[in-house]
Amino acid sequence: MSEPQVEVRRSKRRRQTVSAYRDGGKVVVLLPARMSRSEEKRWVEEMLSRLRRSETRRKSPARESDAALSARCAELAEQYLEGRAVPTGIRWVAPMRTRWASCTPSEGTIRVSRRLREVPSWVLDYVLVHELTHLLVPGHGADFWAWVHKYPKTERAIGYLEGLAAAAQLDLDGGDEDDEQDGGR
């Protein structure tokens, strides 16, 4: 990938902050006027790196579309569920009031809250494995958790989601009561 064109803009009013943004095909980096050329070079590289990381997170395949979400489910089902969990449909939905995601095993469908678009990929992967497992085991019994725990970051992801729900003061309890919509994590 080629480096984008960079335009550096210095400002006497800017004292210490550095920022950058895309403007068409170029990156504009805003710097304090007093900054040295070597500091400028270091900050331009740093800001390009930050922009790339930010754009990579936003463009993560599992976050772009329902089709990409479906493709990720296929990968996870193969890796952790012996390829046995195949949903008939999976899609992003508006934020749910009491769930991160839900599954209707009788229909083979999975719905994932758009709230999860911003979580780390390993957390989203856990939620997908959780919901895919409901296609094999509808309840939350020991056999269900035996499958889910094949995903190595299960406990870590559960902790992350619990912390996220607490911080946002969401009433997301994990939904361990069994119903047609599963509850999911």
What would you note in describing this structure?
By secondary structure, the protein is α/β, with parallel strands linked by helices. It has helices at residues 37-58, 61-64, 66-80, 121-134, 142-148, 154-167; strands at residues 5-11, 19-23, 26-32, 89-93, 101-104, 109-113. It has a 3-stranded mixed sheet, with helices on one face. Strand 5 and strand 6 form a beta hairpin. Helix 3 (66-80) crosses helix 4 (121-134) and helix 4 crosses helix 6 (154-167). The longest helix is centred in the N-terminal third of the chain and has 22 residues, at 37-58. It is elongated and about 65 Å long. Residues 174-184 have low confidence and may be disordered. This is YgjP-like metallopeptidase domain-containing protein.
The structural domain count equals 2
Overall mean pLDDT stands at 85
Query: Main beta sheet, described?
Result: 3 strands, mixed
How far the N terminus sits from the C terminus, by CA atoms, comes to: 38 Å
Tell how many strands the DSSP assignment holds.
6
Beta percentage is 15-25%
SSE string, helices as H and strands as E: EEEHHHEEEHHH
Helical fraction equals 40-55%
What is the highest CATH level, the class of the largest domain? Alpha Beta
Helical element count?
Answer: 6
Biggest sheet, spatial arrangement of strands: 1-3-2
The gross shape turns out to be elongated
Radius of gyration: 21 Å
Q: Which architecture name of the largest domain does CATH use?
A: 2-Layer Sandwich
CATH homologous superfamily classification of the largest domain:
Metalloproteases ("zincins"), catalytic domain
Would you identify the regions where 5 or more consecutive residues have pLDDT less than 50?
A: 174-184
The CATH topology name of the largest domain reads: Zincin-like
The structural class is alpha/beta
InterPro entries: UTP_pyrophosphatase-like, YgjP-like_metallopeptidase
Protein name: YgjP-like metallopeptidase domain-containing protein
Organism: Actinopolyspora saharensis
